[in-house]
Amino acid sequence: MQVQAGRIGEITEITAWDQALRFFSFKDPALRYALAGAILLGLNCGLLGSFLVVRKLSLVGDTISHAVLPGVAAGFLWNMEKDPLAIFVGATMAGLLGSFMVSRLTATTKLKEDTALGMVLAGFFGLGICLVTMIQRLPTGNKSGIDKFLFGQAASLGGSDIYLMASVAFLTFGLVWIFYKELLTVSFDAGFAHCVKIPVSWFHHGFMLLLAFSVVIALQAVGVVLVSAMLITPAATAYLMTDRLHRMVFFACLAGMLAGAMGAFFSFLGHQLPTGPFMVLSAAALFVFAFFLAPRHGIILRWWARRSRSGRVRRENTLKAVFHALEQDGFRREGVTFMTLSKLRRQTLEETETASQELRQAGFATLPPGEKAVYLTPEGMRRAQTIVRNHRLWELYLTDAANYPPDHVHDDAEEIEHVLGEDLVRQLERQLNFADHDPHGKPIPTPEQMVSLHGQDKSASTGSLGYAKPS
Amino acid sequence: MRALIPTWDWHTIFVAPWTTDFAIYGWIFLMGFLVCAACGLAGNYLILRRMALVGDAISHSVLPGLAIAFLAANAWRTGMAAEVNGMVDTGGQEPGMIHGFAMFTGAMVAGVVTTLMIEIIHKHTRIKQDAAIGITFSTLFALGVVLISVYADKVDLDADCVLHGEIAFVSIQPFFSLSGVEIAPASVVLMGLVAILTLGLIVVFYKELLVSSFDPGLASSMGIHAGFVHYALMCWLSVIVVSAFEAVGAILVIAMLILPGATASMLSTRFPVVLSLSLLHAAVSSILGLHLAIWLNSSTAGSMVVAGAGLFGLVWLFSPSQGLLRRWVWLRKNKRSALQAESLHPPYGC
Fold first, then answer.
1. Which of A369, A372, A421, B203 counts the most CB atoms within 10 A of its CB?
2. What CATH number is attached to the domain comprising B54?
3. Residues near B103 by beta carbon (within 8 Å), at least 6 away in sequence
4. Do A126 and B309 touch (CB under 8 A)?
5. Smallest CA–CA separation between A240 and chain B, in Å?
6. Is B315 on the interface with A (CB under 8 A)?
7. Which of B56, B292, B324 lies at the smallest CB-CB distance from A108?
8. The domain A305-465 is classified under which CATH number: 2.130.10.10, 1.10.10.10, 1.10.4030.10, 3.40.30.10?
9. A461 pLDDT exceeds 60?
10. Assigned domain for B307 exists
11. SS3 category, A214
12. Is B287 exposed, middle or buried (0-12, 13-18, 19+ CB in 10 A)?
């Protein structure tokens, strides 16, 4: 049993710590090449992978990476030796042919894209395996090292390989830089791109050519199977980190290079560890990190935002119920008993009490001991009025401006009242001519009343908003 | 170049496998057919559900499941041996029942974990399903390769074999014997069981599978739990994949999964007909592949895939309903509207 994957560290008798020191001294030439190769590879794959991920073409990379195998074999057969140029040309052509086949299959048959991708992947790979086994059974074929292409061997990278990788990375970088605007348009809105006379198919096939180049140079380092990981995972990590494509490309390159360096480091650390899989696992670790901790799209922060939002909505609903109870009494009382509130909200007394406690914690209400009633603080009253105001303004807007029937507007307003911002409220007011009653005939609390309440001057607040002690 | 293609000899290529060497090639053909048939039948549902690449994912990600299962089984066996004999078994001589059991459990767990991981990434973030599939299977595959290379002495898996398998090994396997009667090589018996079970499950749950594949909403309203069907299918798919593993390897199994169904779906739109046609494709491609492999002295599984792909190519050209030839004739007849239709069809992914 042999995994013919790349191994950089061959010295086994020293400890991991010494090995790590040896890594950072960069004295080993094989290590320097492997590290440079891994980083260039990560850069290149991250760059192209970003466009694949946003175009929902992630698995095209996988297909192309498998489809190059017969090309590798054919390149070897060209003059029966491991000639990098012949292999490069053969592999690129096979990859392009694979991409072209997928496009023909989806265009001319009813087969779906995933089936077409899978068929091309497996069909080309099968052909490649046939050719490889035939070559290996030749008398000269055993020394071909062609099986190295399956898992890659970063340790075998030489100076010329690095130059090839660097030039492909340079080419990719330059082309993406020049055609960034076109690529952006084609990626997000191909129809629009077609309308503004961008040659969409040319860009598609040109991009596939670049992709085939990158896959082929990546083969030696990570192998056929794991190239797709280096294309997808760093780009997906970047996709979670930001919403802008240019930042995403930057992050993807960064993640790819980091994964390459980490992979080289870890495989160097241990004895007989392959580089390619470690690069992939490092990329996956970065992805997991982003999955949980990314600023806007990470699980934890999204969970936190949702939690605090649902807490706010719950509090605002309680405030609204308190306000309704006060309003029913014509604001003669200052407090609302738990009993009234629980009837209004159709809750049990315990639930009402918990909800009221939440209000107290947020500083919106006081719960005098022994009274079993909620008293709103001025801040709480103001918030309650804002919510009710949002609700009624929105109802009025729906009936007056959007021609909704009055009995259909309540549920919509229940949702929107929590998210209306101040600007929008002002706009609504202006559009509704500062109306003072909602479609159900209830008064809309106005900002002036809020200010007067905020002053805590109970005697000064007259009319319907006057306070009285609960009996 | 000339040395690559051996001389054409009618007798060795076509006659000998079915006469003098039947004891070897008969089993190889049977194994190939069983793998293609089981995979092809299950693959039809993958194609219908647009999950062809989930098959790809599962075939890669059973690898760590297998590696962990092997390690666990070895640890358990050495533990047992130490208890019984007071000495430690060196392990690795005979796989036995424990290994078989561990293998299937590991594969099924890996299949379910893959499906779950894809769904978690897909549902909880804005990452699309294809990227989620790519991340999941490549990571798990890398994990498998690392496990195999770290525990190379304990895991009885060959990495080359993992990739492309070798079907010819069935002929040198010990026979499985039932009460003293030798029936067939062990893995042929296993694959036969899996294939028959696959067929049986499809016959018994035909309606459930069909309805939940075409219309999950209707399935739910009929009281079929579409989610359960989905996971059960993935589980069974991992079983098929793992039993086909040593014969055809992780990647060629994708071809066995997709090619028969895709070919059949070009020829008919009736699902029972499609299922039978995919069985026919399995049989023809395994026979042709066998002869191809004997002629070219190449990997048998690879040749079967090439033969299957060749069959697909023929159907693509000559299919009566959507073949290229018919399309070409139609294009010549209706040049104008055809040109418009062509320009409206952007390259895939756009």
1. A372
2. 1.10.3470.10
3. B66, B69, B70, B242
4. yes
5. 7
6. no
7. B324
8. 1.10.10.10
9. no
10. yes
11. helix
12. middle
For residue B214, give both structure tokens: 């075409």
Say whether A109 and B125 touch across the interface (CB within 8 A): no
**Chain A residues 211-240 with a CB less than 8 Å from chain B:** 225-226, 228-229, 231-233, 235-236, 239-240
Length of chain B: 350
Q: Which two tokens stand for residue B34?
A: 């069983």
Range of the domain at B19: 2-337
Residue position matching structure tokens 């599962």: B58
Q: Is residue B342 part of a domain?
A: no
Q: Do B160 and A299 touch (CB under 8 A)?
A: no
* B322/A109 touch (CB, cutoff 8 Å), yes or no: yes
Tokens 């009234």 sit on residue: A340
Tokens of A59: 């698995």
Which residues from chain A sit within 8 angstroms of residue B146, using beta carbons? 273-274, 277-278, 281
User: Does residue A38 contact residue A154 with C-beta atoms inside 8 Å?
Assistant: yes
Chain B residue with the nearest C-alpha to that of A238: B127
CA–CA gap between residue B71 and residue B77 (Å, rounded)? 10
Kindly write down the DSSP assignment for every residue of B273-292, as one continuous string. Answer: HHHHHHHHHHHHHHHHHHHH
CATH 1.10.3470.10 residue ranges for chain A: 16-297
Does a structural domain hold residue B38? yes
Q: Please check whether residue B142 touches A, CB under 8 A.
A: yes
Mean of per-residue pLDDT scores for chain B: 81
Residue of A nearest to B341 (CA): A107
Distance CA A38, CA A41 (A): 5
Token pair 């894209």 in the structure block, residue: A113
Q: Does A60 touch chain B (CB under 8 A)?
A: yes
In this structure, is residue B17 part of a structural domain? Answer: yes
CATH 1.10.10.10 maps onto chain A at 305-465
pLDDT surpassing 80 at residue B25: yes
> Is the model more confident about A400 or about A252?
A252
Q: Do B348 and A55 touch (CB under 8 A)?
A: no
Superfamily covering domain A16-297? ABC transporter involved in vitamin B12 uptake, BtuC (1.10.3470.10)
Domain count, chain B: 1
List the structure tokens of B39.
Answer: 């995979």
pTM assigned to the model:
0.79
